[in-house]
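Morning run. Coffee first, then this:
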Amino acid sequence: MKEVLDRHDIIFIDDEVICGFGRTGETFGAVTYGMQADTMTLAKGLSSAYMPISAVLVPDWMYEAMIEPSAANGAFGHGFTYSGHPVSCAVALKTIELMEEWAVMDHVRALAPKFQARLRGFSDHPLVGEARGVGLVGALELVADKAAKTPFDPKQGVGMACYKACMEEGLIIRAIGDSIAFCPPLVITEDEMEEMFARFGRALDRVTV
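And here it is:
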């Protein structure tokens, strides 16, 4: 993809709002997949979502194009009312410090194979057409015909039915159409992970079509 973009002089923007800060087992998803982006957007994991904060990382050539004219013509006129809020920045710095102190990414790397194996264990379920994921993020796609992987009619609301069954089991997941997304806390323990999948299994078995 990067080669094609470079050939046509198109900037490669890497959205790391979900995949950044250890979710895939590496600092960023781009590292996991060996991608070289031109710019990178960050949020959520930057402060562990305790405070609202986001950031955009840009290369020197892009930064210099903004700074040099600003030096000649005055301040760079860009920003929002709460840009660079000191409390959010302090929380982000502490979050990164604690992630390093607690070796969170090492924990993700150690737990990820078990997480992915448990996730893919649902591949045999009659409603599951595909299990996919990396690190501590994954999804199960629910289908009407397992062999042909034919999707359900959206009007049937199968994904939402699964979501409601999970909530009744005390499990918070996300239904993206008929794909059930798993994105547990990076500090989840193996026992907690097993409980998560046990609750999901009970919920999935309750979904009738």
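The beta strands are 13-15, 39-42, 55-57, 128-134, 137-142, 174-176, 179-182. Good start to the day.
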